[in-house]
Specification:
With 104 residues, the chain is mainly alpha-helical. The chain contains five helices and no strands.
Length: 104
């Protein structure tokens, strides 16, 4: 990569650091340590986790409102919370699948 001046290089470094240190990225790095410690039983339980129906309905409602541009800052925070928890759940399920695959 060619940098035209030092400020561009510093800006890129700052953006990369910010990207790597989102809450989800930090949790993902923590969960990477689970493989040797997560039992098959726990892994199966994690794979069975799902959002309750009322939360799924709320997420769909929030997504519809977001598409229409109707989210207030408070409701946007709620939508972000669902997204954050969903991302964590996806990471946990990925780790659980790895545990079950490696235990075969």
């Amino acid at each position: 990569m060619v940098y035209w001046h030092a400020k561009s290089k510093e800006k890129l470094r700052m953006q990369t650091t910010q990207t790597r240190n989102t809450e989800v990225a930090i949790w993902k790095r923590l969960f990477e340590q689970l493989n040797p410690w997560l039992s098959r039983e726990a892994a199966r339980a994690i794979l069975g986790l799902e959002f309750p129906p009322q939360d799924k309905a709320r997420m769909h409602e929030l997504a519809d409102r977001a598409r229409r541009g109707e989210l207030s800052p408070e409701v946007q925070r709620e939508a972000n919370s669902y997204g954050f928890v969903g991302s964590l759940l996806s990471i946990l399920k990925s780790k659980a699948r790895q545990v079950l695959k490696s235990a075969r």
